[in-house]
Amino acid sequence: MDNKKIYKNEIGFEAPIFIIIFFGIFIYIGSVMGGTNMIKTMMNTGFDLLMNVCFYLMAVSVLAGGMAAIFSEFGVIALINKGLSVIMKPVYDLPGASSLGMLNCFMSDNPAILTLAYDDNFRKYFKKYQMPALTNLGTAFGMGLIIVTTMMGLSVPNAISGAVVGFFGAVFGSIVSVRIMMIKTKKFYGTEEYVICKNVEPIPENKRRVREGSIGSRFIQALLDGGKVGVDMGVAIIPGVVLICTFVIMLTNGPGDGGVYNGTANQGIGLLPIIGEKLSFILTPLFGFSTPKAIAIPITALGSSGAAIGMVSDMASRGIINANDIAVFTSICMCWSGYLSTHIAMMDALDTKEMTGHAILSHTIGGLCGGVFAHLVWQLLF
Q: Using CA atoms, how far apart are residues 251 and 296, in angstroms rounded to an integer?
């Protein structure tokens, strides 16, 4: 898509409205935390996210990029595309090759799918309307292995069954998310034009591009080239993770030990859980939660599934949740995978940032549907 220049009047109604909203939000947060503590917490949280989250995601992207590159070099992507197109096309309206992205994200984290999306041997299978949906597809399976195994190991009766039901709930949520996303992308991009490959020279039909040299040389070169793409992807997601996740954390978490604000990282005003409790009359019947405190898990999963499963472990140790809760938690935590902190950066990295708003909306709906599906299946089977 061409980058069109958009102009507005030098002075308009946007400026005063923005000033009121912007300062209103931060004056409110500062009134709760204290102005100095708010600034210190923002800086410390951003630094903590950079060091402990962004660099972790960069490492994941490097490893995933290397694996994706050798899979591309030796024809694994082409083979998977042929074998799984019969499943992926009717279910997701995506090429079979996208299943490799699902596996990458399931074994690691959301951005792992981006390294595949930069490989011409992968891109050539996609039409333009399908490429933005990779963000939703990959996110729905992000951290899946960690989440499912953690839920299975909790000291809750039938936790294993609950985690399995939750996994299938996440799969259902991914289908809903991708399909809703494509309603918009089809209208925006059309359904005929294919994604432009990064290399100017087109790839002939039924062929794939490979490197020169022996098998060993091609393996090493592909591995290193894929790792370099992973570094680029890791850098690309830093702004979105640091900026968005800092804001989400400060709206989600509470004060430090003893209920005191001292400016350390990951403190907040606890606004989102309060909103969640106000909506419990809707959410509790949909998900069948056994305690109102369970509402905090989906809210936290918006920004960080890692933080959410930590809260689940604490609730399990106190014996206040059951297997139905585990099923719903698994589904929502896996499907959402902290998407508010990665979705914007991932869409920007795919050069489809114009679809970011719709991607977030469709994935919000997908995660909620996945949680409801897990609850209904658990009630039906158990």
A: 12
Nearest to 322 by CA among 337, 331, 312: 312
If we measure between CA atoms, which residue out of 62, 45, 106 comes closest to residue 247?
45
Please write the tens of the pLDDT for every residue from 82-140: 777 788 889 999 988 888 788 878 877 777 777 777 777 788 888 999 999 999 998 99
For the chain, give the number of residues: 382
Give me the residue spans of the domains in the chain: 33-381
Three-state secondary structure call for residue 12:
coil
**Exposed e or buried b for every residue in 80-118, given b needs 16+ CB within 10 A?**
bbeebbeebeeebbbbbbbbbbbbbbbbbbbbbbbbbbb
Place of tokens 């989906």: 298
What are φ and ψ of residue 243, in 5° steps? Answer: -70, -55
Three-class SS state of 93: coil
Q: Tell me if 294 sits within 8 A of 132, measured CB to CB.
A: no
CA 174 – CA 151 distance, rounded (Å): 19
Q: Burial, 302: exposed, middle or buried (Cβ in 10 Å; 0-12, 13-18, 19+)?
A: buried
Spatial contact of 208 and 78, defined as CB atoms under 8 Å apart? yes
Q: Roughly what angle, to the nearest 10 degrees, separates helices 76-92 and 98-107?
A: 100
pLDDT digits (tens, 9 = 90+) for 26-68: 999 999 999 999 999 999 988 988 888 778 778 877 887 788 7
- CB distance 235 to 336 below 8 Å: no
